Amino acid sequence: MTKRRPVVAVVDDDPRLLESLEDLLESAGYAARTFSSAHLFLVNGLSGFDALITDIGMPDMDGFELRDLVIKSRPGLPVFMITGRHEIADQSRAQGISGFFRKPFDGQLLLAAIGDALPESKHGGRT
Amino acid sequence: MRFNHSGIKVGRTRLEQPMMDVWSHRPQILHLALFFAAYVLGCGFAQALAIVPGITVSIWPPAGVFIATLILTSPYSWPWWVLAGCLAEMTGQILWFHSPPLAGFLIYVGNALCAIVGATLVNRAFGRPVRLETLREVLAFVVLGAGVAPLMSATVGSATLAWFGVKSQTFAGVWPLFWIGDATGILLVAPLALVVIQHWRNRTKFSAVRWVEAGSLGLIFLGLAALSLKHDFLLSAYIIMPPILWAAVRFEFKGVAVALTLLALVTMTLTISGGSQFVGDPETQRQKQVMLQLFLAISAFSALIVAAISRQHQQALLALRDREQELSQLVDMVPVHIRRLTPEGKPTFFNKRLLDFFGMSDIAQLDKPDMNRLAAAIQTLVHPDDAPRLLATVHTSLATGESFAMKYRMRRADGAYRWVDGRGEAVRDQHGAIMQWYAISIDVDDEMRAQEDLRDRERELSQLVDMVPSLLWRLSPNGEPNFFNKRTIDFLGLDVADYDKPGASRLKATLTAIIHPDDAAGMIQTLNRCLVSGEHFSMQYRLRRADGLYRWVSARAEPLRDESGHIVQWYGLAHDIDDQMRAEEALRGLAITAIALNACRSLDEVLRTITDRAREIIGAHMAVIGTTVDQRWAQAIQAVSLSQKYAAYRGFDAKPDGSGIYGLVCNLNRSLRLTEAELKDHPAWRGYGGHADQHPPLRGWLAAPLIDSNGQNIGLLQLSDKDQGEFTAEDEGIAVQLAQMASLAITEARLHDKLRLAQETLARASQAASLAELSASVAHEVNQPLAAIVANSHACQRWLTAEPPNLDRAQKTVERIIRDANSAADVVSRIRALFKQSAETRTSMPLDSVIAEALNLMAEETARRRIRLDVDVESDLPLVSLDRVQIQQVLVNLIRNGMEAMDAAANDRLLGIRTRRLGDVVQTEITDQGPGVAFSDRIFEPFFTTKGNGMGMGLAICRSIVEAHGGRLWADKNEPYGAMFAFTLPVEMNRST
């Protein structure tokens, strides 16, 4: 019980998706913190998170820009990107990225990917 | 003695012990002195009665004194008495007898031997202390003390007299006189001495009457003695016997002692005075002396015997009285009520305890004039409820002679009734005839009340056990069921004994009968394991209810152990968790269904999945989805799921016509749940169409309407013939949810169809956006809620499969799924409206009415955004041919764009709308005071957006629509700032001209 649950940040401009991802992550034993924009996420600061899930198509700052910023200050932080626009997924800059999910994505696969990216976490959420 | 004690040590133990005893047993000087005086007095008395000259004595009272003294004292003190006696006799010799000293001493030796032998024999014969209270004791005393002992003194004394030739006496001549003299002395004096000495202290007080009697007796005695013993006055001295015997009878030994003393004194007096008839001439002297001796001896002997007999009789009477008193005390003392009845049943005795109980002093108080005592007693003293029964029981026993036993209530003196246990038994004589009846009763009121309390408590406990809303049961240590509470019996509807089957254990037979066949084997195995090992039993299984339905129960059983740890009983408890289990199952089923629907590739597949799942979750033989288009069943889509029972109907595809109960549900747009009976009686139910003869009866009927996003009915989901029992409210809830899923799927499918159509139309009409671009945009808009739905479905599944299932979270998640699915439908609905295009919908109308409608639609939003409108529509505008909804959408889109552009503006939010005819077109301009448009060309490209929540399609589509109408849409700068969007629509030429 003393072991801290891994915290996953979720950034998406669609509140429904934030809600569902929060639910999914909690059902797998993670703690989720949701942000409706990249800006709000950055204001909050990067420390205290074990992984980041971000939408790509967002106003002001899109998912790619956010990812680049985050990786600069926290190189090891696993970042997962999700998008509803499949044409983006086909773009060259999205190629070769492992943590890439098209909406609607398979929740189990997403959880599996997060679990793999957090090897030190051996908690029982991933069943 | 001191000398021995201090000087000689050798042989001391041998000799010293008796010496010490003799010394330590020395009598008091006073006693020795009294003895000495009595002895000397006796010697004098003997001298006075000496009739025959030369023969010293006719009666020898010292012998009696001596023997009585020795009888009463310890043999160790005897030497002292012998010494004192010797001194006394020597004194007598000196005073009266004047025998030669040696002869006198030898005679004394004989006397001492007589006393020692007599005392020893008497003590031996009846032990100490000598009481002379029974005939046997008196006889022993007379024979041994007065008969045998004087043999010694007579022999030694006669021999001495003969040897010394005192008064020329011969041995044979003097021996009998000597013997009788000693015997008489002993008979006369020893009893007196014994009585006087023994009763010296505990002298009983005589009553006045006794004293009078004693006094009169004394006078009669003295008178008679004087007369009878007087010389020749009466025929015989023995006339004196009656008073002596009277004294013996009435006053026993005391009387005898006094009488004999008086007799001796009278005799002595008369003899001394010469008036006695025993005084005669010398020839008859010897004979007279013998006669005197015999007279005294016989008197003493007779009186002693009579006294002994009287005494013994008195003792017997006393003993009897003591025993009676003891018995009577016992009867009153035992804590039992005792009564005695005559053989006819009349109570003749109540013991004191019983009288006290009733508060009576005498049994006669029970008597009543016109009733026998038994009936009266029972009527008065026994509780009215018990009295007739008791009376009948007693009468029966009296008639048959058999004992009886019965518990009844008796009324105590204070009026309280007490329970008693009564028993009666006859006492019979040797011939078996009943002499009387004894009846006893014991107070058992406390026990009865305790038993009653116990029964009350047991009943309460049993009520409590029956009230517990669980099934309770009890097994013996080897598993025999020996108790079911009422709820269990009601639930199972069984009499436990019903399951006794030969060949199988009762437990196994019972369990096999009441547990679902799939669960029975496992449950029996587990329970048997627990019975053997003693570990707790805990399991969930299905139990068959009385109506044949199987219900899930959660059961537990624990052993009750005694102090040594042995199992005494097993207590089991089961509670019905069927509703909970089914709710969990249903929720799980719903979530699985939601996920399964994602994998469906066609609407048919979706509906088939839903019907299958509905049938499975709710547990029915048949599930149907029927859909309508605009309430017309003719276009219905059908999905039917049938169980094995309905296999024969799988080919059945006759379409319903909507006029029956299906139509009712769709018209009401509400779910409907009917039992079999309700269905048959329902006015809208018309059997099974043309198949009534082949159709099995339906066990219940349940339908939920399919409703689209506008609230319109589009069909129904219907289930019939439930596997077990009737459909429940929970089933109805599940059906409604599944119907909602089906509604969404149908709506979505239909919208997809229409969207496809719209896209095709759009593609034909507009070259602005490629089909691929459009579809990508639409897909994004739909994918957004779909992604949420899928993620939520996965979450829901995880909540449900968690251990334990988190039903609250699952429920919440399912609600979100439904909400998001609706939202997806809305998206599609909006897109459909945008793309709807068909030639038929074009009508000729003035544009101002369309503008008015659009502004009306936006009125609420305008007010909310605090936008001021400046509308300038030219009057008499020519008609234009247009698709009203599409143009409306263009207007709404442009107005909203303008309003949104001013969201950030702090200044006056003015939105202008201006419409006028410019040649053969009608031009409409929408102006805002926002930041303006940077890329006036690019904004019309699909997916270009400057807004956070836009889909980037609005302007592209608007341009498509306008161009499809033959018009133009462009953007420009507004003066002094902001943006201006303008579009034209061609005037309908043939109308305008």
Q: State the separation between the terminal residues of chain B, measured CA to CA.
A: 189 Å
Low-confidence stretches of chain A: 122-127
Radius of gyration of chain A: 14 Å
E-strand count of chain A = 5
* Number of E strands of chain B: 22
What assembly state would you assign to the polypeptide chains in this entry?
A: heterodimer
The fourth-level CATH homologous superfamily of chain A is Response regulator
Overall morphology of chain B: rod-shaped
Give the tally of structural domains of chain A.
Answer: 1
Percentage of helical residues of chain B? 40-55%
Main CATH class of chain A: Alpha Beta
Shape of chain A: globular
Q: Using CB atoms under 8 Å apart, which protein chain pair has the greatest interface?
A: A-B, 31 and 34 residues
Number of domains of chain B: 5
State the helix count of chain A: 5
Assign the structural class of chain A, choosing from mainly alpha, mainly beta, alpha/beta, alpha+beta, or little secondary structure.
Answer: alpha/beta
Helix-and-strand structural type of chain B: alpha+beta
Q: Might you state the CATH topology name of chain A? A: Rossmann fold
Strand count, sense and barrel status of the largest sheet of chain B are: 5 strands, antiparallel
The helical percent of chain A reads: 25-40%
Secondary-structure map:
The complex is a heterodimer of chains A (127) and B (993).
Chain A: E1 7-11, H1 15-27, E2 31-35, H2 38-44, E3 51-55, H3 63-73, E4 79-83, H4 86-89, E5 100-102, H5 107-117
Chain B: H1 2-6, H2 12-24, H3 29-48, H4 61-72, H5 78-97, H6 101-126, H7 135-164, H8 171-198, H9 208-229, H10 241-273, H11 282-333, E1 337-341, E2 347-350, H12 352-358, H13 373-381, H14 387-400, E3 404-411, E4 417-428, E5 434-443, H15 445-467, E6 471-475, E7 481-484, H16 486-492, H17 506-514, H18 517-533, E8 537-544, E9 550-561, E10 567-576, H19 578-598, H20 603-618, E11 620-627, E12 638-642, H21 661-668, E13 672-674, H22 676-681, E14 701-707, E15 713-722, H23 729-765, H24 771-801, H25 807-835, E16 842-846, H26 847-864, E17 868-873, E18 879-883, H27 884-901, E19 910-918, E20 921-927, H28 954-964, E21 968-973, E22 979-986, H29 989-992
Parallel strand pairs in B: 17-19
Antiparallel strand pairs in B: 1-2, 1-5, 3-4, 4-5, 6-7, 6-10, 8-9, 9-10, 11-12, 11-15, 13-14, 14-15, 16-18, 19-20, 20-22, 21-22
